[in-house]
Amino acid sequence: MKMPFFALLALGMIATAIVMQPGGSRLHAESDAEIRASAAIVQDVLTQQKTIAENQAQIDEKLAAIGEQLRVARIFESRAGGMHKAP
What we know:
The chain is an all-alpha fold. The protein has a domain of 29 residues. It has two helices and no strands.
């Protein structure tokens, strides 16, 4: 959900950099290189963000599995006459 917002923000920043350049809308060789470098950096950040989102999904799945295992263990413990509170 945040990825499209970030991509639009990055594109807006690049567009602003192009418009705000001294010398009008004419692009120089240096600014072309800067734009390409900025685009490469934005792409790298988007790739990293995708990786982080995938890792977070895996973490959430593992936590859910652990929670289910704990729930089942508590059920078996209660049926087997597990540890009781002292009177």
